[in-house]
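Me: I'm a chemist; would you kindly supply a protein sequence with its structure tokens?

Assistant:
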Amino acid sequence: MATDVHHRRPGTSRASWTTRRWLRVSATLALIVLAVLGGLGLWALNRTSTLTDELVDVRSPALATSVRLEAALVNQETGIRGYGLTGERTFLAPYQEGLADQRSAVSGLRRLLAHDSKGQTDLDTVLNASDRWQRGYARPVAETPAGAPAKTSAQRTNQGKNTFDALRKAMAVQQEHQRAAREGAREDLRSAARLRDSILLSIGAVILLLTVLVFEGLRRGITTPLAKLGADARAVSGGAFEHPVAATGPADLRQLGADMEAMRRRLLDELAFAEEARHRLDDQAADLRRSNSELEQFAYVASHDLQEPLRKVSSFTQLLQRRYAGQLDERADQYIGFAVDGANRMQKLINDLLEFSRVGRVHNDHREVDLEEVVGQTLDALSVSIEESKARIVRDPLPTVTGDATQLGILWQNLIANAVKFRHADRAPEITIEAVRDGALWRFAVSDNGIGIAAEFAEKVFVIFQRLHTKDAYPGSGIGLAMCKKITEFHGGTIGVDPDHAPGTRIVFTLAAAEPVRQPDALESAAAR
């Protein structure tokens, strides 16, 4: 048995309508209703205007003209009767005027009653009766010579009276019909006015109803869902991440709510993951604190316990070198020299490592530091090497910054000492110290005309223990620029090599003009929590 299955096409359900479609359909329906009501209103106004024109321009003037026609005929009858009795021509003047008035009135009635067949018939009846009275009485009397009409008038008196009575009757019927027509027009006008008022009131009521429906539709379909969506969003943004975001209203608003709910769920998952990561960071922070404590203990051991045996090794190897110099063979003297040099370098390396580890941990007294004074003290400390190398130093006036005086002294000492140490063999060192304000930062530069740094090593030189030359050519531990970078970054600045400077090297670094706000890293944040 075959059955018909009707499937609803997708998208036809009103539940899938968007706000735009709801507004479009509602506006279309409202415009159709308003157009229909507007058409009815225009029809009612046009009908009222037409009936008013008919009453004012046709019915009332037609009745008035009929009365004028009656008056013209009565004037004719009065003039003829007076002439018939007296025979004097002066009595024919009203008759002649009545004829002229009759012609004018008839012409007016013909025009006014052009579309009124009944009125035309009544007019014809009146004119026929008037013509009979004219032929049978009025014209014969009027054509009689003066002084003689009395006889003619007497002969036709009864005929004239009968025909004029018939004329009066026809005029009465005509006027009665005109009055009835005028009253009918008035009643039609009153009915049309009532209909017009009813339609206009209905239009006003429908417009008011449409307005109420529009506002109610906007409230239920748009403003209320949006307000609820906003309240849910504010609740979530206020920290109530467990609060669900409801999806109501048209399809697009429901989709927006669904997207916000999906975002809330994802945010909730991210927060759960972040909370779990925070716990892991707490554990790592605890491990880091233990490690830092062990590192500090190691630093203490290195600075005390390791230094003591190292000093003994260095002292005894130096004693062996002095006491047995020349008494042993050349290879033994070489071995003792290696031991003395290794012990000294180990001692210096340990001291440098301790100094590097203290940056930001031991020396952390931020206050206003006059860099003129710091650099002056640095130049005094390096005066011997500056004089031996015949270095010439030119510097800009240096500002006062906020930082740790000890660390900034180490920074300037390393940079100026490097400029002197890595000088060119063929020329005396020329060192320039620059300071330029750049917004919230001070930009400094230490330039020299020494051997320079190749571009491929511009980053490598700031890595701890990275040396570009052998210890025989240039002594040192390879930790100076790494310490400069650590000090600069601790003070909220940056440091680097200017690749365009030649000959020599130009180290550029920045320091904050005001107290830098250090952003704690993840481990410090976790430890603080």
